Amino acid sequence: MPEPKVSVLIPTYNYARFLPEAIESVLVQRGVEFEILISDDASTDGSDRLIRRYASEDKRIRNLQRTRNLGMVANWNACLSEARGEYIKFVFGDDCLATPDALARWCEMLDEHPEASLAASARYVINGRSELREVWDEWRKPGEFAGHDVIARCLSLDKNLIGEPTAVMFRRIQAARGFDENLRQIVDLEMWFHLLHHGTMVYDRTPLCAFRVHVGQQTALNRATAIGAAESLRLTARHLPRLSESRLGWGRRKRILFRTLHYSRKRSPRTPEILAAEARIASQLSRPARAACWALHRISRPFQNLARWGVRTFSPALATPSVEWCPPRHARFSSAAPFVYDRAHGH
Questions:
Q1: Residue 246 has pLDDT above 80, yes or no
Q2: Which of residues 173, 205, 220 is at a domain's end?
Q3: Which has the closest alpha carbon to 8: 68, 96, 70?
Q4: What is the CATH number of the domain that holds 162?
Q5: If we measure between CA atoms, which residue out of 232, 222, 262 comes closest to residue 155?
Q6: Closest CA to 97 of 194, 165, 14, 1
Q7: How distant, in Å, are the alpha carbons of 126, 135, 157 from that of 313?
Q8: What is the pLDDT of residues 39-97, one digit of tens each?
């Protein structure tokens, strides 16, 4: 069997109600050769039976059923280690692709930009009933962005501006390290930083996937523990020093450190882990640098708030009139997941 261009990885745990939508959204893809690896992490909701039925109908599907629960990140890595494609495309068990040419478009971005380490896109945000809630388009313009600048912007705003794994495609050869299994909340962003130290990011404003927000997802569970706050501090400490002074500049580096520390102290619980991480960040800021950053922050903050209000109020609609969210129509194998792509209609 020839090597596929893309390995589509679907790690899942107890998402039988959403899995048909995820799988079907990949099966309708056209214009590129792909394999689908579904790694069920010992689910207890009948996911294994559902996956076996799909795999029996389509030889492109490889069923990587786990007999014991590996945990979220270990399951991602186990799935990644089995991939054979040149490019890696995660589609989580509760997400889905948005158009039948989504894989081809991500591939085109990487093919046309050999220096790019990853390709990302805008994404639809849907709820548990596959209803559209909003569109996330963080960059607001298509094109290629320098890796060090993407990292700096994410660190400065303490936000994942790149997207979740379902919104990103990357090169398998550059991801041999795997995801950091010591992290739980910002695992994906840390991997994107690792890749971007070696290349650029290509971005498409077209929403090529749908990210589902629901109460059972890991992000919602982690939010209650504030684990993301401690990991954000670790992310800054790990990756900011890797950005060269000539590319980033002394002033921008100090502003990133200040913002990281300032907002952590405002928003994070006062746990020993967070206090220790804040102390490490603070040690890199002299008193004069901290005072200068504080003054600049106070002066610029009202203008930044005004700019954000202007973008929300007056920004033109997403420039993709031909691409609209079309809720899936039916599931072939699971009455518990009634929303799945109808191949006859190409949605």
A1: no
A2: 220
A3: 96
A4: 3.90.550.10
A5: 232
A6: 165
A7: 22, 15, 20
A8: 999 999 999 999 999 999 999 999 999 999 999 999 999 999 999 999 999 999 999 99
